[in-house]
Amino acid sequence: MLKSRSKTFAYVILVIVVLFLAIDLIAGFVYPDLWAFDAATSVCRKNGWQPGDFLSGQSSISGGLIGKIVTLEFIPRDQIRCKRIRIILQRPLNLVPWKLMEYSEEHNQS
Q1: Distance of CA 97 to CAs 6, 28, 32, 64, 92, Å?
Q2: Rounded to whole angstroms, how far apart are CA atoms 99 and 92?
Q3: pLDDT above 90 covers what percent of the chain?
Q4: The pTM is what?
Q5: Complete DSSP assignment for 26-49
Q6: Which residues, other chains included, contact 33 with Cβ-Cβ below 8 Å and sequence gap of 6+?
């Protein structure tokens, strides 16, 4: 009787893990990577930048089936304050929001 309970428990845990991974995989396709851009602009606002303060930007996304890392670089209009802003965000699971890993401002060398 004890063996059957532990076996049933193991199957239940296995099914839960497989379902979680399947849902996370589906969320990776449904959850837009554009939300990383929204998270990055939020970080910029917290550091004193406004949405119209940038001339251009570029991004790169890397990751596998579970989780991603995005690197965004912005070139501000105000070249006096800094030359470039670099933001690295991570989403360890597709079901969680983007998390700030690094924020840096590349300053002009005087």
Answers
A1: 35, 12, 11, 16, 9
A2: 9
A3: 34
A4: 0.75
A5: HHHHHS-THHHHHHHHHHHHHTT-
A6: 61, 68, 70
| Residue 79 and residue 53 in contact, taking contact as beta carbons nearer than 8 Å | no
Q: Using one digit for the tens of pLDDT, what is the confidence trace for 10-59?
A: 999 999 999 998 888 887 777 767 788 889 989 999 998 887 888 888 88
Which tokens sit at 61?
């996304």
Three-point CA angle 50, 97, 39, nearest 5°: 10
Amino acid in the structure at residue 32? P
Q: How many CA atoms lie within 13 A of 17 on its CB side?
A: 6
> Are 31 and 94 contacting, i.e. CB atoms less than 8 angstroms apart?
yes
The one-character DSSP state at 107 is P
CA 85 to CA 29: how far, in whole Å?
Answer: 28
